[in-house]
Amino acid sequence: MTLQRQVCAIALLLTTAVSGMAGLSTEEKQARLRSLRTKAAGQTKLTTLDRAYLDAAEILTQQAPCSDFFGGEGAVLVLDKLVARLREERAPNSNIGLRMSGAFTVFADDEKQTTYRLFSDAELNTNGPFYRAKVFPADPFVPPVGSFRPNTRAARVLILLHELAHLIRGRNGNWLIPDDGGNVPLSRQNSEQVEARCGKQIRNL
Ligand SMILES: [Zn+2]
Description:
The chain is α+β, with helices and mostly antiparallel strands. It has one domain (about 1-15, about 25-205). Helices cover about 45% and strands about 15% of the residues. The protein has seven helices and three strands. The protein has a three-stranded mixed beta sheet. A hairpin with a 4-residue loop joins strand 2 and strand 3 (about 115-125). The radius of gyration is 18 Å and the shape is globular. The relative contact order is 0.13. Bound molecules: zinc ion.
């Protein structure tokens, strides 16, 4: 193997380690997520996003106020679709964990009795509380998520569950939490609402 090839191989390995879903289609990503849920933990090297996804899926399948709020097991299907569509991007605003934007399409899953929507874009900010906390004085402020410190396992799960609540329609015909784009106090209130239902299980992770 020439030196150049060795360098390429190492670069490829590093890329694979950073993101287990790089280069896969949305369908392939969904299939990978499903297989993560069925495989015994430890068989696959999990990324930070994989871990957060598995934590959220685990909470949604437990009989508790959290899964009731999300309407039962159909919520995991919507979580799969959300996570498979995430695009990791470094946004300058460190206040934002995950942002969904653009047009949305509504879907109905009759079998699971779940009505949900998907936005054309869902961006996971690599510069926000999912991945970052303020460590040094020169670092930008990164807010907590609900009552959880940024860049923690608990904060990451709450970020995913908050976005999921924007996607699922409740029995009253409204989305589980109201749209909060650009409205920081309402976004905080929405996180608090999801934490009120799911906080106990998140703290038990
Ligand atoms: Zn929100």
